[in-house]
Amino acid sequence: MSDAAAPTPQTPDAEMLLGFWYPALRSPQVSGRKLHKAMLLGVPLVVGRTDQGQVFALRDTCPHRSMPLSDGQFDGAQVECCYHGWRFEATTGQCREIPSLVGHEKLKVERIHASSFPCEEADGYVWVYLPDPATRNSSPPPVPRLPVFSQRYRITHLAADLPSNVDHGIIGLMDPAHGPFVHQSWWWRSRRSIQVKEKTFEPIPNGFRIQAHSPSPNSAPYKLLKAHGQPTTTIEFVLPNMRFEQIRAGDKWFSSRATVTPIERNLCRIDVVAAWNIFPWFPFTVSLLRFFGRMFIEQDRLTMEKQAVGLRHSPTLMLVDDADRPAKWYFQLKAAHLEARRTGRPMEHPLKGPVTLRWRS
Ligand code: FES
Ligand SMILES: [Fe+2]
After folding, report:
1. How far is Cα 143 from Cα 242, in angstroms, rounded to an integer?
2. Buried b (16+ CB within 10 A) or exposed e, 46-72
């Protein structure tokens, strides 16, 4: 057995990557003057929307004596802490008032800040950018967006909590070998449908892509799309946590993005957003896609719940070629990203060019 083919012992370090945007909440949840709690990478947040419609995210800790700001009041512009009434500008965190001051103190109120995070909406999510202390002075990159290919389309969102660290959530997302075992059903596929797959992967910035290919002819989108032309699929993984999939045939398209967001060390959430312009007149497409999407996510969630039992004692894991190679690349990309951050040098991509992988699934 060559070295490359030997199972690789691997212990995920579950490090949560700073310096990226993460979806905190769905946009429609954040309405009125209600303050919402959210958690990203173990950072407690209070999220809300000003009367002007601007979303904001502050660390859910008052800089005075750490009362959660989410327990306070919000007047549409300023958040007031419930303990001593300090008031903070919602969008900047700047302190505006300390009610206990009588006027002769030297304290400059406006120099005090509650920690505030860049916060924007896209694709129906409120995204929060968690800065990396190593690159604190650079401005955040644009918020990730789901690619869409026409003016009009339908869109839907699904989410589930996964009781695992972010690494297991992500490698589960890219794992081609679990399909026939976890997602078995008479109308989708069974163990008997296992066959040899061969796909060529190529490097892209911060990730890798499966070169455009025909989707599996037994998959549902393929059957729906083939009337419009020969369908092609592209699948991409991009750090820190995103899997994009697009299927296109003529002017018809289906586009989805799954993100695995670390909430805390041993809890993550998968958010799936999907948009399409296939059969926009068909009233049941949203419900149908949600039904099947939910079933798939539920199958993955239940699997991870069981796996969490096995992972409790931090065993060493094995990654085998070729089916687990994307998982190996994920760990290598993550390590390369952290190394680039440490040294300040450009990231060295683990993939030097296209690689063809073969596996059975
Ligand atoms: S703890 Fe918030 S005002 Fe004192
Ligand atoms: Fe799955």
Report:
1. 13
2. bbbbbeeeebbbbbbbbbbeebbbbeb
Query: Tens of pLDDT along 262-312?
Result: 999 889 999 999 998 877 666 667 777 777 788 888 888 888 888 888 888
Domains of the chain: 20-130 (2.102.10.10), 154-360 (3.90.380.10)
Distance 66 CA to ligand 1 centre (A): 7
Rounded to two decimals, the pTM is 0.91
Which residues' Cβ are closer than 6 Å to ligand 1?
A: 62, 64-65, 67, 81, 83-84, 86
User: What digits encode the pLDDT tens for the residues 173-232?
Assistant: 888 888 888 887 655 556 667 788 889 999 999 999 998 887 766 666 666 677 778 888
Rounded to the nearest angstrom, the distance between the alpha carbon of 304 and the centre of ligand 2 is 10
Q: How far is the CA of 78 from the centre of ligand 1 (A)?
A: 14
pLDDT at 160: 93
User: Which atom of ligand 1 lies closest to the CA of 67?
Assistant: 1
Q: Is 184 exposed, middle or buried (0-12, 13-18, 19+ CB in 10 A)?
A: middle
Residues with CB under 5 A from ligand 2 (ion): 300
Q: Supply the pLDDT for residue 284.
A: 66
